[in-house]
Amino acid sequence: MEGYKAKVTVDEIVSMKKKSKITMLTAYDFTTATICDKAGVDVLLVGDSAGMVMLGYNTTTPVTIDEMMLFCKAVVRGSRHAMVVADMPFMSYQVDVTEAVRNACIFVKEAGVDAVKIEGGEEMVDTIRAIVRAGIPVMGHIGLKPQTAMLWQGYKVQGKCKESALQLVRDAKAIEKAGVYCIVLEKVVVEVAKIITDMVKVPTIGIGAGNVCDGQVLVIHDLLGLYEQMKPKFVKRYAELAQKMTKALISFKNDVMSERFPSDENVFHMDTNEHDKLMKELGDIKNE
Ligand code: KIV
């Protein structure tokens, strides 16, 4: 098939470590997924950041499985090449291991995703091991853990002191041993991100962790300048789409008000013959 590229696999992601940087972006809908796929992005993360950028919650904590399922299904339909990863929402994997495995299975069987991501280090080892044993690839996520950040210390930079750095290293080693195929490092100081990246065999994917990681992930709304409520230091804006959209929408409104839209090229016409017959019949109706 022309332009067809096979689906990215777990083995490919693992073998990219130290060879070729991994690109991951969040996606929550069909259209965005098709565009990312065309651009050659390796992994599409249906992040629970959807709760903030798509649903307007203040944090990711309230997001439910049902909400995530809808986003996951749309992204799976839009991606032929990129691996699709479902971010398991808060409390879908923390209560007990059996429930975590069952919920991970729902994302794979019903939404059709290729892997799941869960936040947590040493405390998540049993859960990761059980999901992997069930046959589902797991992406780890340590450093800043947004699902619980606001319940504890807020969105702070991680690994700044020796104790915190050592805990991150222990977390990375523990989840690697439990079977994750790659690890997201969020808002981790570069020095510690480098130590972890050099120490583990699986790739690290950084967000606010520097270019020492094996790959990079960003929330697509941040990259495109669509979500204007905040701009973290680690975000690079590649476009200012919110401003462009506002400008386009104002033009639409002005065009409608001034009757410049729709113009003749946007409308449909009757055949002249049919129109003449209609006018004649309307005349007859009027005269009845
Ligand atoms: O939910 C999300 O978008 C994420 C990324 C920030 C890694 O977890």
Give a summary of the structure in a few sentences.
With 288 residues, this protein is of the alpha/beta class. Helices cover 44% and strands 13% of the residues.
List the helices and strands and how they pair.
Layout: H1 10-15, E1 22-26, H2 30-39, E2 43-46, H3 50-53, H4 65-78, E3 83-87, H5 97-111, E4 115-119, H6 125-133, E5 138-143, H7 146-149, H8 162-178, E6 182-186, H9 190-199, E7 204-207, E8 215-218, H10 220-223, H11 241-257, H12 272-287
Helix pairs in contact: 2-4, 4-5, 5-6, 6-8, 8-9
The structure holds 3-methyl-2-oxobutanoic acid.
What does this structure look like?
The structure is a single chain. This protein is α/β, with parallel strands linked by helices and 288 residues long. The protein folds into two domains: 10-240, Alpha-Beta Barrel (TIM Barrel); 244-287, no CATH class. It is built from twelve helices and eight strands. It has helices spanning 10-15, 30-39, 50-53, 65-78, 97-111, 125-133, 146-149, 162-178, 190-199, 220-223, 241-257, 272-287, and strands at 22-26, 43-46, 83-87, 115-119, 138-143, 182-186, 204-207, 215-218. An eight-stranded parallel β-barrel has the order 1-2-3-4-5-6-7-8, surrounded by six helices. Strand 1, helix 2 and strand 2 (43-46) form a beta-alpha-beta unit. The radius of gyration is 24 Å and the shape is elongated. The termini are far apart. The mean pLDDT is 96. The site of 3-methyl-2-oxobutanoic acid has 11 residues, from strand 6.
